[in-house]
Amino acid sequence: MSKKLKIGLFGFGVVGQGLYDITVSRHLNLEIKKIAIKDASKKRSLPSELFTTDRWEILNDPEINTVIELINDAEAAYEIVSYALKNGKNVVSANKKMIALHLEELVQLQRKHDTALLYEGAVCGSIPIIRNLEEYYDNELLYAVSGIFNGSSNYILSKVFNENQTYGDALRKAQELGFAETDPTLDVGGYDAKFKVCIAAAHAYGLFINPDDVLNIGIQNLQLSDMKYVSEKGQKLKLVPVAKKRNDNEVSIYVLPKLVERDDFLYNVENEYNGVSVQAAFADQQFFFGKGAGGHPTGAAVFSDISALRYDYRYEYKKTLVEEKVDFNNEEVIQVYLRFNQQRLLQELPFISIDETFSCKQYHYVVGSVRLADIFNAKDAILADGAFIADTGKYVAHTETLAEETVCCNID
Prior knowledge:
The protein is of the alpha/beta class and about 400 residues long. It is about 35% helix and about 25% strand.
């Protein structure tokens, strides 16, 4: 039997309103008792007595047994969520930054206080990837989880490659439509995708990883020359987070733009849509596709979590309990395309091997193999140069042998 949920909702933005629309359209055993907001003067479509600016009206209300957290501030969200869990309230959150930064502690709080935190809406919008990793793949050996996890950057890249818009024009359009913030760094810099893939890695591999240790470089330095290179190859460019096993004991996690071939599932994932690829030992490759942004798609994921709480569902984090643990390792060697301006950048980013070079007055590029760790260390130099780097998606064989030597490429 389902139990009655009395809900305190934090945040009434796009997702909060989308969730409310879905909730009132369904006749389920739940009630939104109070909604916490920041701006009490803002006109709203619901009765004013439903709203409060005092978080404690929700957190200290003994009748409220479920907290829904849908605010942007990661640290404020952490304070709300951790307090609720400690005080016997179940929680649903869509704050991927907060969850990624504090996940290991939040798992411990759930176990200690016998409460549940669900967050399907925090990773890839409407796609139920967390529930699938938890339930369908709970005993499956996973080789890789990757895909398009950020609808804002994918919208921009779709306009660039399908409609020949400039990066700047596409970004402005994304901001006008509400897909990107005034400061778009979280999306186009790959931070949003990094937080999401770190969360997914906990369920896929039982690995809690500090996002600060994970490489992320986005599409913010994309130029016409890069788009020309990709188009001439008959490919598209996507911003792709990756979590994959290097061997039985190590997992690599990173976020980079990727050159995508026509036969790749991601090639036709456009606009604000997301796509998640799971490569498994027994189920082989499976692909999940759906909207990654918007009030109703994300609200639907949040609503699904709320519905699950009615039956006392919770994540079990089964892969964190196995004896054979895996470690994070960024020694993976990948082939990259690097377009750059200043020759000295190649001193900062040592290539193991070079497969292709090009130079003209306006810019230079190289294609070659390099360690993720070296890209991580050279990230600031890459961004400061205005350089653009992308994973070519080409397999690099014998990475241990390659890693023994590095080469320096001088381009005149």
